[in-house]
Amino acid sequence: MNSEQISLLQQLCTATSNIPLRVKSIGTLESLAQNPSSIEGNKAIADFLLSTLPSPGTPSPIGTEPMVQVVNSIIDIYSDETMPYDINFRQGRYLERLVASLEEVRKAIRGIDRRKEGGRELRRHAEEARDNLVAFIQYRRELRL
Asked: Is 34 helix (H, G, I), strand (E, B) or coil?
């Protein structure tokens, strides 16, 4: 993995209006971020992913469905605190950033219209991601790293 590949995927995610392509680019970034020998690559990807989460009063710039993928990706990347790149999670204060975005994530998920095509399934998937995020935050707090 090199920084050019990461940068291209990040640009694709923000430049395209194609939601499935955004979701796939986030999934690819997630895979790249889990390379134990690339701590800097992991940091670049995680900082980008976290920047796409909503913050108080500001919705996600990439939309709700890709935001749900970002939540799942962050959880997958940092679910094993023994990985060498977990240092980024601790030093970057990612837990605080996740906590700060939690209420806006909840609002975005409540805003999913179940009546739209695919809305019911997206809402179910998003609620599952939200529940996983709440559990992940609790898990990371209990680690006290």
From this structure: coil
Q: How far apart are the first and last CA of the chain?
A: 28
What three-state secondary structure class fits 90?
helix
89-111 per-residue burial string, b: 16 or more CB within 10 A, e: under 16: beeeebbebbeebbebbbebbee
Is-above-0.85 flag for pTM? Answer: yes
Q: Closest by alpha carbon to 63, among 94, 6, 25? A: 25
Strand partners, 55: 58
- pLDDT-based confidence at residue 49 (cuts at 50, 70, 90): very high
Collapsing DSSP to helix, strand or coil, 58 comes out as: strand
